[in-house]
Amino acid sequence: MNIYREAFNSYEVNTYLLVAGDRKTVIIDPACENKAEFARLEKIIAEKQLDIVGILLTHAHADHVLGVKFITDAFPNAQFLIHEEGLSLYESANDFSLVMGFKKRELPAPNRFVSDGQELVFSDITLNAFYTPGHAPGSVCYYAPSDEVVFTGDVLFHSSIGRTDLPGGSFEILRKSIMEKLFTLPDNTLVLPGHGDETTIGFEKQCNPFLK
User: Fold this and answer.
1) For the chain, where are the E strands, in sequence order?
2) What is d(CA 144, CA 60) in angstroms, rounded to the nearest whole number?
3) What is the SS3 assignment for 55?
4) Does the structure show a pLDDT above 90 at 66?
5) CA 157, CA 197: separation in Å to the nearest integer?
6) CA 165 → CA 73, 162, 172, distances in Å?
7) Cα 161 vs. chain centroid, distance in angstroms?
């Protein structure tokens, strides 16, 4: 699997393209805010001749869902998945958009829901979904065991964790999610978060000041 990353909107959300050997591609957290930002993503897709087959959200905070409509319009055959617990947050994302400085936009309905422990297969890409609440309702991390990489959204960052002071947040629940779902992964697992730089599970076990 090849992975490409682009950061979008004023919150610098990491959008990931996961590319299989046959160029079938899954997008995690399409966060492009406007047509100019979407054009950056389109350029990568066109240059590498990617076939977009899936759209996954780690969670439905407004800064992470801004580009869903761009993707579903351009690639109508792509399957759009979220966790059912995050549906109400997704459907109210426009309310948070105004607070965060974004314009309202159409929010396409998901095709289906993803559940905890579910194995998702897109061509030769296999992802295990981990339900990891605490930062946001319906938060999911996606682990690719064959590539030893986990996409953690706003659950776990380099030397930090997600905010827990937003509606539906809880430090105790977030810590439990990290300890039981992420810190059981191999130490060399690469962590690709929703914002900022990559890290590893082993480094965060040893050095994350919020998890001591």
Assistant:
1) 2-8, 13-19, 24-28, 51-56, 79-83, 112-114, 119-122, 125-131, 140-144, 149-153, 156-157, 160-161, 190-193, 199-200
2) 21
3) strand
4) yes
5) 8
6) 34, 9, 12
7) 15
Instruction: Find, among 75, 73, 76, 64, the residue nearest to 28 by Cα.
Output: 64
* Longest CA span, the chain: 45
What pLDDT was estimated at residue 96?
A: 77
Going from N- to C-terminal start, the domains of the chain cover 2-211
How far apart are alpha carbons 34 and 69 in whole angstroms? 10
pLDDT band at 212 (very low <50, low <70, confident <90, very high): confident
DSSP tally for the chain: helices H, then strands E: 7, 14
Q: φ and ψ at 2, to 5 degrees?
A: -100, 145
Cα 115 from Cα 48, distance rounded (Å): 31
pLDDT at 198 (0 to 100): 98
Task: Report whether pLDDT(56) > 90.
Answer: yes
Task: Band the pLDDT of 105: cuts 50, 70, 90.
Answer: confident
Structure-token pair, residue 134? 């605490």
Q: Where are the beta strands (DSSP E) in 84-203?
A: 112-114, 119-122, 125-131, 140-144, 149-153, 156-157, 160-161, 190-193, 199-200
CATH topology of domain 2-211: Metallo-beta-lactamase; Chain A (3.60.15)
The backbone torsions φ and ψ at residue 80, rounded to the nearest 5 degrees and listed phi first, read: -105, 120
